[in-house]
Amino acid sequence: MASGPSRSWFVVVPDRELPPGPLTRLMSRAGRVVRYPSGRPWLLGDWAPERMVVASAGGRLLAVAGTSSVTAPDLQARLKGVSAVADVEGALRGVHGSFHVVASLEGRGYVRGSASGACRVHRAVVDGVTVCADRARTLAWLTGAEPDTAQLAARLASCLPHPLAGAAMWSGVETVPPGHALHLGPGGGCRTVAWWRAPEAGLPLAEAALALREALSDAVALRVRPGQVLAADLSGGMDSTSLCFLAAEAGASLVTATLHWEAPGNEDRDYARYAADRLPGAESLVFPSAGLPPCFAGLERRRDPQEEPSPALRDREIQQHLTRALRARGATLRLTGHGGDHAVVPPASYIHALLRRSPARALRHTAGFRAQRRWPLGATARVLLRDGSYPHWLTTASGGLREAAVPLPACETWGPRPALPPWASTRAADQFAALLRSAAGRTVPLAADFSRHAWIHQMREAGRIAGLIDDDTTAGGLPADSPFCDDTVLDACLSVRSDQAGHPWSYKPLLAAAMEGLVPGHLLRRTTKDHCDVEWYRGIREHRRQLAEWAGASHLVAAGVAEEDGLRRALLSPGLQTGGGAELENTLGVEAWLRDVAAHPVPAYLNRTPRPPHQEPLIDSAAP
User: In angstroms, rounded to a whole number, what is the distance separating the alpha carbons of residues 84 and 82?
Assistant: First the structure.
């Protein structure tokens, strides 16, 4: 089988004389370079030609990197309206996809990722100069940075609140918050400025559904390439099923992948089969779990580490199995329904704001949620009546990290409360608490009310994981895109009235309304969601020896963020843990990441035979 696509990367350097050491190191690893009019490097890295669109006019440069609807002639035309950094976003209005934007305008730079966080920007100071990159690990390699133990401690937590989620894992490397851009001055300094603002949340369900249908249709059609086979997950759930029908509508040559888990009463297989029978021309591949690698297979195999620890360690070998099968069918790209849960359903805490606008309606919704989710009356009342600032919530959370997460909470206020597992060390608790207190002193919420803040944050968490999925699957040979994490899709979802998109009497009402007339009604009326618990516990049992070895020589213990005895008990007897599988998977992800970093001190995507980088040709509209 031919090798798959390689991981792309880029670094943005300022138009000034730089110390020869860092620049020489970058030039020796870069496969491509785009230069300033001065002749100095602007963008250094390695990328497929279709992943980078660049336009130039006089002393102005504009680049869009990633999956986008913009073409080279289109971008060249848009650049005509750009004379300052403040003009960039207006010039790109209407461009959709998931991408970075980089601009250089008469000595001033502009770099941003996506509002969803699927595309991120990082920065570090290299010999007194700010250097930006799409990968934190590139900057860590360039500066010789080591993993930050406070970030290791934070990654053990049950969840990470804004703004800690997605922070760079390396000392001295900073992550630009999603929705913000770096403005780079001619002297080498920089400042962070918001470029994205959430839309007003006032559309009724029917109007918002039309907007979501259009945004999702555009997102999927962007990934349909003439003459190429498109793979797509078909789990039987509403998210992946919707994408499959949209891909078929866009004319894709489609091959679908369905996993059959063993849990009694699992309904995924039935819904997936029903959908596959109604997808014209699609080839359906079904993978019974008995024929797949067990969960947690490949723990002993060291891989090139990702940007941060991944919670998807358990199914890496399973996904590789699927990748081989899909590539054998000719697939060059795979669609996943990841992010649908996060994007189309707001947190139930919307009832807090609804109570102040429409008390009777809020109380009806609250009663529905209490019956559906078994919320305790007292806890529900406290949440409904509670008011408090986000900094106060962060400070309070810093003092309760040792309290076990509530298994059946009432609706949260600013979001799920972070908690550390029992095996986290005292040092880990102190460091994580310090991060939370520091954030409380400098952070404003993503929105004024509880639910909207939590909704935007969960969307960005989906985007963060989407980036990890794409990175991992690209390295495995078949990139996986998550259209639900495109910015235009998130904007469409955020435009709806929360009480119409998240009420307790319908499952994903916004997505169901958006897909009406395309996806069969039987699939849109599904109200259940299945799991793979049987396979998860079997995988833990089958890899108990490997887990015991990890416990005895843990990198987490060596870093001082985990207690050896508690970690061993958790790894060998996971059924006794009260926090469920998620907290154990977080720990395994961090342990595996540390082992991968130790085994691969130089990122694999930087390991190339030294040769002069390819000079990207530029069409300058100002040239004669």
Answer: 6
